[in-house]
Design goal:
Blueprint: E1 9-10, E2 15-19, E3 24-29, H1 31-37, E4 40-44, E5 51-52, E6 57-63, E7 67-71, E8 76-81, H2 84-87, H3 91-94, E9 103-107, H4 117-124
Antiparallel strand pairs: 1-2, 2-3, 3-9, 4-6, 5-8, 6-7, 8-9
Length: about 120
């Protein structure tokens, strides 16, 4: 069973969302996703200033098993990315909900279709 913190929201594509402020949210991939990918060796981060739309590709994660797209769970603008992942992408394997965060997005519209931790656990069971 993967780790699913109750204080986060989730997507069906296995991204997590944490509120940083009323209009800014931090995103990453879930423990379930990193476990399915295996050892992560590279991440293509979105660019600061890039506009993103909910459900659209905003980056890529490459592992020893496969390459997987990262879908933005929110619509808005990327205001920060995790620069540590350039040199140590394996942080996503080690701390998917902590040091392995991917980006922060300032939203332009309220998020919809996000799952609670309970709903996400059912999805991944």
């Amino acid at each position: 069973m993967s780790n699913v913190p109750a204080d986060l929201k989730y997507t069906k594509e296995h991204e997590w969302i944490a509120e940083s402020s009323a209009t800014t949210f931090r995103i990453g991939i879930t423990d379930f996703a990193q476990g399915a990918l295996g050892d992560i060796v590279y991440i293509q981060l979105p660019k600061v200033g890039q506009s993103v739309a909910a459900g659209e590709v905003c980056g890529e994660v490459e592992s020893t098993k496969s390459v997987s797209e990262i879908y933005s769970p929110l619509t808005g603008k990327v205001v920060a990315v995790n620069p540590t992942l350039d040199a140590t992408p394996e942080l996503i394997n080690q701390e998917p909900y902590g040091a392995g965060w991917i980006a922060e997005i300032e939203i332009s519209e309220a998020p919809t279709d996000l799952l609670s931790s309970t709903e996400y656990e059912v999805l991944t069971a």
